[in-house]
């Protein structure tokens, strides 16, 4: 998936645990873990907004677009 979640990086910068963030954002630890482990298929803007508010960051600090390498031409 070309969108990579960098939540772990921001948590380390803020010296905050995942469980502390989950409580502050009022989201289950399980759902936040799915987001952190890059297994989420979607994220609500309201959740993203709450995470950014608590971590004092921008959405671009949490999400990064990493293009996939082009497929090799078929021979």
Automatic annotation (TrEMBL):
The name this protein goes by in its record: Helix-turn-helix transcriptional regulator
Matching Pfam families: HTH_26
Lineage, opening ranks: Bacteria, Pseudomonadati, Bacteroidota, Cytophagia, Cytophagales
Superkingdom of source: Bacteria
Organism of derivation: Hymenobacter yonginensis
Chain ranges of the HTH cro/C1-type domain: 13-62
InterPro entries named among the record's database cross-references: Cro/C1-type_HTH, Lambda_DNA-bd_dom_sf
């Amino acid at each position: 998936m070309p969108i990579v979640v960098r939540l772990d990086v921001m948590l380390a910068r803020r010296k905050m645990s995942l469980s502390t963030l989950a409580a502050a954002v009022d989201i289950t630890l399980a759902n936040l873990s799915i987001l952190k482990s890059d297994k989420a298929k979607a994220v609500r803007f309201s959740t993203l907004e709450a995470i950014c508010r608590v971590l004092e960051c921008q959405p671009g600090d949490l999400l990064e677009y990493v293009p996939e390498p082009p497929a090799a031409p078929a021979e």
